[in-house]
Amino acid sequence: MADEALVVIDLQNDFCPGGALAVAGGDEIVPLVNDLIRHADHVVLTQDWHPAGHSSFASSHPGSQPFTMIDMPYGPQTLWPDHCIQGSLGSDFHSGLAWTKAELVIRKGFRPAIDSYSAFFENDRTTPTGLAAYLRERGIDTLTLVGLATDFCVAFSALDAVKHGFKTTVRLDACRGIDLNGSLETMLRRMRDAGVTLEDHLSD
Ligand code: VGL
Ligand code: ZN
């Protein structure tokens, strides 16, 4: 039997309604994610974890507005409202999330000059978070991804997971998206093309 892990991406207050970078319906997935956690062999959580003044914040670039693009040394980067600042209430996991079973919390986005959507690589696409080696050393080769946001951190994580050779499923009914300039359609197509299994149990 393959060893499987559930990876819960960024289910944090700032990505839920009322948060600094709220994803529509972000909190609605909590009961289903808790169900999946209950049935999972292994659970890994990711936590977006930015220092104040992070380079992905529009507020760090005078004259720039959130949700616009900027060129960083590593390539184009979307600018966001200040969010998930280390230790803030917004960076906490949603209070309803049954997180205690998690065996690992992987924090990302803590380098001031690089954003990190993926649970595996930062946005320069070369700085690893350590997650792939951790999973491999544990003998885990099959992943199910859920969380926020479908078209950013979930999608980038799923694409990197298949790149690393993990058998990867995204449960779309346990995700919600931001959908910035068609990003949801684009990233669903990219995931499908890369060999990510997309499952939506609501439409079964
Ligand atoms: C995310 C934008 C900025 C995400 C994190 O979790 O999808 N999106 N930081
Ligand atoms: Zn972030």
Automatic annotation (TrEMBL):
<dbReference type="InterPro" id="IPR052347">
    <property type="entry name" value="Isochorismatase_Nicotinamidase"/>
</dbReference>
<comment type="pathway">
    <text>Cofactor biosynthesis; nicotinate biosynthesis; nicotinate from nicotinamide: step 1/1.</text>
</comment>
<dbReference type="InterPro" id="IPR000868">
    <property type="entry name" value="Isochorismatase-like_dom"/>
</dbReference>
<keyword id="KW-0662">Pyridine nucleotide biosynthesis</keyword>
<feature type="domain" description="Isochorismatase-like">
    <location>
        <begin position="5"/>
        <end position="199"/>
    </location>
</feature>
<keyword id="KW-0479">Metal-binding</keyword>
<comment type="similarity">
    <text>Belongs to the isochorismatase family.</text>
</comment>
<dbReference type="GO" id="GO:0008936">
    <property type="term" value="F:nicotinamidase activity"/>
</dbReference>
<protein>
    <recommendedName>
        <fullName>nicotinamidase</fullName>
        <ecNumber>3.5.1.19</ecNumber>
    </recommendedName>
</protein>
<keyword id="KW-0378">Hydrolase</keyword>
<dbReference type="Pfam" id="PF00857">
    <property type="entry name" value="Isochorismatase"/>
</dbReference>
<dbReference type="InterPro" id="IPR036380">
    <property type="entry name" value="Isochorismatase-like_sf"/>
</dbReference>
